[in-house]
Amino acid sequence: MLKAFRNLIGGKETETLSGRTFENRNPAEWDEVVGIFPKSDARDVDAAVDAAKQAFREWSLYPAPRRGDIVKKAGDIMVARKDEIAREMTQEMGKVLLETRGDVQEGIDTAYYSASEGRRMFGVTAPSELKDKFTMSMKVPVGVAGVISPWNFPMAIPTWKIFPALVSGDTIVFKPASDTPGTAATLVEILVEAGVPDGVVNIVHGGGSEVGMAIVEHKDVELVSFTGSTEVGKKISGIASKSLKRVSLELGGKNAEIVMDDANLDLALDGILWGAFGTTGQRCTATSRLIVHEKIYEKFVDMLAERASRLKLGNGLDESVEVGPCVNEAQRAKVHSYVEIGKEEGAKLVIGGEAATGGDLKKGWFYKPTIFADVTPEMTIAREEIFGPVLSVMKAHSIDHAIELLNGTIYGLSSAVYTRDINDAFRAIRDIKAGITYINAPTIGAETHMPFGGVKQTGNGHREGGAGAFDFFTETKTVYVDYSDKLQRAQIDTYSAKPGNNRKKD
Within 10 Å of residue 462's Cβ, how many Cβ atoms? Predict the structure, then answer.
């Protein structure tokens, strides 16, 4: 029998008020239904927010190290269930087991890092300008946090948001992507097992227009963390600005790798294959553009095409498979539409360019790894995020030209440069407009204790990962303790009245 899932609200599994459901299917074997999930609406969100609001008072009073202990225990449970979770994720999302194990491991790493921050949520102490007065600042919880996560990293990205929020003392209303609700349900199940009190974490399944926007618009949701498209992020930002709701947006990317003529070409080749076709190109940090120095351009394109043509497609549960399917039919159709645009605009199709439908692939949403050469900056495939296994190759005549090409999009998430020239490497680090730059490594590979995020239309300036996540999920409170036993006036002229001091008043 198919497993039927429910929302979790106030510690209780609940049906939707509408009674509607949706199917979660395997993108590699579309006939396979993974589970049945509730299709919620704003009324379910109201109930979840109310539960989170009620739970906030008690949860916010837990000492932060104790909140960290619970998150650490969740990490321990994830370690024990790692392979099980990875297989579940492959079945509902499609990426290969090597990557889904990595997705779970990233969640584990985030758990342990976030738990440790429960003992390191440092404030600032500084001397007062007045005698017998003490000054300090401290981090305090905000309230109910809305968490809206994407389907491509269904364990890692929710943990980037939920674990720091919990250690910070916030409570959660979580809307996972409808393409990967099973992994999200497992994460919440693990948190409950780890000891998170009722109402602290609530999960509401359903679509973005009904559930996601209801979270964003809700008056009692005080902050929202969203990862998804730039288009949706702009809409969320506009809604949230009306009430000055705090919002963290991690949005699109059009990431590029630069390969200079002095680079280790074998290393660069491995990195580009991984960056462009890992996760079937369905990463915000995926290598979507490749900028190659003109001296090695033809040689390197040939090397790349030969290796990419040998990548094995298939069901990610097969350990020998290197590239899984697109997440659903609509995503594959979107990828193919960009390929057609690329051909119409004059890019040279080197390999791929079509769906893979033969043999064992016929029941899934597979697309052949695709490479375009002779791409120019004004082409659509050089500017817009495709989110699929399509790589656009461009030619540069110098490091400065390559950086100019790399910067020529509205996005600024991840970037990479392959070179043995330390001067070129540091020039790239300085001049590339991106939140992340790798030297001699691909555009993917963020580590959980380091800041993650982008510039320009990739986000709104907040960072996930590292201490920056705790800056978002907490408020800073400044405290003054005056033990002089008399009225002292700060920011009044305390200098000019002193004998021998000629300092003027402001």
Answer: 18
